[in-house]
Structures are given as structure tokens and as C-alpha cells.
Amino acid sequence: MQIVAPRRTLILAAACLIGAGVLIQWLLGYSLNPASAPMVEIVALVLYGAAIILMVAPQARGRPLMGAGLGFILMCWAVHLNARLSVFLETEAGGDVIAAHRILLATLFAAPFAGLIVGIISGLLVRAERIRFAPRAAS
Prior knowledge:
It contains 4 helices and 2 strands; from the N terminus they run βααααβ. The chain has helices spanning 7-28, 37-60, 64-92, 99-128, and strands at residues 3-5, 131-133.
């Protein structure tokens, strides 16, 4: 399957995925059932990874190593920001959390693994040219 879409459409789709991830985490994370929060965070991270792939793969255009590197870096950053968001949401819900410990663990251990997965997928999609921007119409 090959996705060819205008630049605005792919960026809008990525923004919608990021917004859906934050909204799901905010609404379902700690307010309804604190025990389901880790699963909700994983779902949000999958949505963030899909958004990163939609943004990175068309930009790399034939440079799979650049696509893999950008995917890795952006996913590591997304995991770090997600840890900060989860600490904020848990403290707002009345939970007791050691913020520095959770952020450090997520950044040092979870981020490289998630970044590696997204980086490899991005690099392979760039190499296979599966996600591309549609050519601009002649004016």
C-alpha cells in the first residue's frame, strides 16, 4: 500500500493523531480508572509514533538513514514529554508520584526502545517510498 497525499493532509492527519493521543490520555488516563493508566499511555504512544511516521517518512525522500534518525529522535522526545504529561495528570487526579523518578526511567529506558522501533519503521518506509507527498499542481 502506498500513501500519496498533499503535504497539508499528512500534517493534518499527524496533528489529529497527536491530539487524539493527548485527549485519550487526559480523559481516560487517571480520571476514570487509575489502574488502566499504563495501558492508556501505551495507546497514546502508539498514536504518537504513527504521527511521527506520517511526518518523517515523506520528508526524508530517499534518505532512509535520515528518516530513521529523525524517527528515533522524535519518538524519544515524545516518550519524555508523555512521561511529563502522565506525571501532571496523575498529580492533578490526586495521586502521589515521584516525578523525577518516573521521568528519568521513561527517558532512559523506554524512550530508546520506542525510538528504535519508530526509527526502523520510518527508515523502511522511506526506503520503500510508501508514504510520499503528492506532487504540486502546475500553476
